[in-house]
């Protein structure tokens, strides 16, 4: 077993007197889809915000490829290879797919000191990424505003890949999608892992999770209460872990 | 691909058609309209608006605006006029306009970007400050009877085309290249779409906004150079309707007042249509007093039509965008 891409050790987060997260240990492996499950307020969002560099942990440490890291901003997290695709995708609807994928880090050549865009090369790279993801988007020149929700997810994934992300965090990627679109995004998620990326998926939809996740972690009241391989569990068990009806969770919560 | 620098909705064709119809109607209505003398007057009167409109196109595309452009042109014109009166070399005199304009653009950017005051309010405040500055600088008197040095240079022709026309074409070409061929254009349109998303995408939002206010200021200052060359005087009321004219022409041209979309060709045609209507109505006997009514009416009318057609919607509570 190789070292995990990212290891969280004893991560806790306090907001004043409120403890949002305590003692979370978690390994995130390359090539694996890891689902984070839990009720609202269970601590999933706080946890991914720490991974994404949006919050700093109050205690505990993060190791990327074995080396301790500390993120002061999302930019720091990005330079460690962590990309977060938020539910509200940060895409510019008035720009094309190719422009969005490269926005903020365009390819350019300098002519007399003026940075000119290498549009042809950017288009080719995006074309290749879209084909590789089998995203069924034929024209990288189309404005993002004309795309469906699922296609926009695909563009956001392309953008993460193009940033050389090694860990892609997806926050409820299928929440607002129709059935066929959901299928498509789930298969994109799978393909991302097959490509060697580590994927963290937050979802409330148990059947989606069972379709794509290799491993599932359940959060409850700011703690990690369970970790299961997909092969070793079933939706009923996961639901009982989330709601706290599961004997393990009850035992755990009694001891605290 | 066009991505908003040229719009897809055929606005340019409609404007071209409107210009042609207006030209035909006024040619029939007034014997003075379709003369080479009037055509020259019309084009000369469009020069400042073409330049100020170019800057305003960038500002609106970015989700910004500047209602102080008229007074900024006035201040720059005083600088140009003084330089001209002091017999400084023509090059220095000509550059005084864009340099002063860029400096005032920097002030605007400081207020709006660093001070985080909404552009429409920040520039309105500056308008008040500058109005008095003009009065103080001019001492209540017109700057008039200026020498012809600048006029001669800009009116000189090359291959039968005035130097002024070349300079304006150059300005449009440079802005078009910046918009379509450099990262700046993408960043500007992304900010116009949503400043928050642009920031999340790693765009240097503050730098892009500063640069755009400075460029718009420099273009307004260049307009001042042409103004002084054209009229050889600077009056107290200089630029009173310029902001209204520029915003109306640019919005007519298809640039979105909410940002994220612009058309340079649309701006050129919007300026021409506005000037044709103003000139034509004057020639058929409508007093010039009515011109701002026409401009303001066109601006409101176009926006109301876009809202009615569902292409535009404004938040109905509060006036600060997004």
Helices and strands, with pairings:
The complex is a heterodimer of chains A (256) and B (322).
Chain A: E1 6-15, E2 18-28, E3 33-37, H1 44-51, E4 59-64, E5 67-69, H2 74-79, E6 82-85, H3 97-102, E7 108-111, E8 114-117, H4 119-132, H5 149-162, E9 167-171, H6 179-194, E10 198-202, H7 206-212, E11 215-220, E12 223-229, H8 235-243, H9 247-255
Parallel strand pairs in A: 3-10, 3-11, 6-9, 9-10
Antiparallel strand pairs in A: 1-2, 1-4, 4-5, 7-8, 11-12
Helix pairs in contact in A: 5-6
Chain B: H1 11-29, H2 36-61, H3 69-85, H4 90-114, H5 119-138, H6 149-155, E1 157-158, E2 161-162, H7 163-181, H8 183-193, H9 195-200, H10 205-231, H11 242-252, H12 264-283, H13 291-308
Antiparallel strand pairs in B: 1-2
Defining traits:
heterodimer; A: 256 residues; alpha/beta; Rossmann fold; 6-stranded mixed sheet; 4-stranded antiparallel sheet; 9 helices; 27% strand; globular; B: 322 residues; mainly alpha; ABC transporter involved in vitamin B12 uptake, BtuC; two-stranded antiparallel sheet; nucleotide-binding (chain A); AAA+_ATPase (chain A); ATP-binding cassette domain-containing protein (chain A)
């Amino acid at each position: 077993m190789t070292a995990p891409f990212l290891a969280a050790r004893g991560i806790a987060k306090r907001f004043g007197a409120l403890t949002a997260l305590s003692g979370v240990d978690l390994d995130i492996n390359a090539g694996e889809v890891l689902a984070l499950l839990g009720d609202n307020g269970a601590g999933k969002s706080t946890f991914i915000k720490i991974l994404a560099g949006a919050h700093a942990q109050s205690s505990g440490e993060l190791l990327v490829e074995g080396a301790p890291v500390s993120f002061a901003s999302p930019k720091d997290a990005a330079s460690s290879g962590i990309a977060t695709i938020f539910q509200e995708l940060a895409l510019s609807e008035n720009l094309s797919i190719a422009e969005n994928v490269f926005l903020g880090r365009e390819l350019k050549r300098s002519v007399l000191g003026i940075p000119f865009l290498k549009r042809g090369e950017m288009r080719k790279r995006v074309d290749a990424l879209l084909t590789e993801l089998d995203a069924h988007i034929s024209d990288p020149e189309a404005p993002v505003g004309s795309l469906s929700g699922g296609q926009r997810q695909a563009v956001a994934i392309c953008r993460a890949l193009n940033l050389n992300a090694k860990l892609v965090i997806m926050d409820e990627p299928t929440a607002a999608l129709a059935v066929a679109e959901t299928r498509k995004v789930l298969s994109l998620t799978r393909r991302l892992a097959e490509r060697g990326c580590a994927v963290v998926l937050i979802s409330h939809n148990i059947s989606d999770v069972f379709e794509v996740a290799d491993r599932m972690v359940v959060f409850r009241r700011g703690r990690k209460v369970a970790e299961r391989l997909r092969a070793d569990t079933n939706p009923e068990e996961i639901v009982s872990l989330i709601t706290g009806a599961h004997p393990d969770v009850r035992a755990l919560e009694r001891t605290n | 691909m066009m991505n908003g620098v040229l719009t897809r909705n055929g606005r340019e064709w409609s404007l071209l058609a409107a210009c042609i119809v207006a030209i035909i109607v006024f040619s029939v209505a007034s014997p003075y309209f379709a003369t080479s003398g009037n055509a020259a007057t019309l084009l000369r009167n469009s020069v400042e608006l073409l330049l100020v409109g170019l800057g305003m196109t960038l500002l609106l595309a970015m989700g910004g605006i500047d209602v102080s452009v008229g007074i900024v042109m006035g201040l720059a014109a005083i600088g140009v006029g003084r330089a001209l009166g002091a017999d400084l070399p023509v090059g220095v005199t000509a550059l005084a306009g864009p340099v002063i304009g860029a400096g005032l653009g920097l002030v605007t950017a400081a207020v709006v970007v660093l001070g985080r005051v909404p552009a429409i309010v920040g520039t309105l405040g500056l308008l008040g400050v500058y109005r008095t500055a003009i009065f103080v600088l001019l001492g209540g008197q017109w700057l008039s009877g200026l020498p012809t040095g600048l006029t001669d240079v800009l009116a000189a022709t090359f291959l039968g085309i005035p130097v002024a026309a070349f300079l304006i074409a150059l300005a449009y070409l440079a802005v078009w290249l910046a918009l379509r061929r450099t990262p700046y254009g993408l960043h500007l349109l992304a900010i116009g779409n949503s400043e928050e998303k642009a920031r999340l995408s790693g765009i240097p939002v503050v730098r892009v906004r500063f640069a755009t206010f400075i460029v718009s200021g420099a273009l307004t200052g260049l307009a001042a150079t042409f103004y002084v060359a054209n009229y050889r005087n600077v009056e107290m009321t200089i630029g009173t309707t310029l902001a209204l004219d520029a915003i109306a022409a640019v919005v007519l041209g298809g640039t979105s007042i909410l940002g994220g979309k612009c058309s340079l060709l649309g701006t050129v045609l919007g300026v021409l249509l506005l000037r044709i209507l103003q000139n034509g109505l004057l020639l058929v006997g409508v007093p010039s007093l009515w011109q701002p009514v026409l401009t303001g009416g066109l601006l409101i009318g176009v926006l109301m039509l876009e809202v009615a057609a569902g292409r535009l919607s404004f938040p109905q509570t509060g006036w600060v965008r997004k």
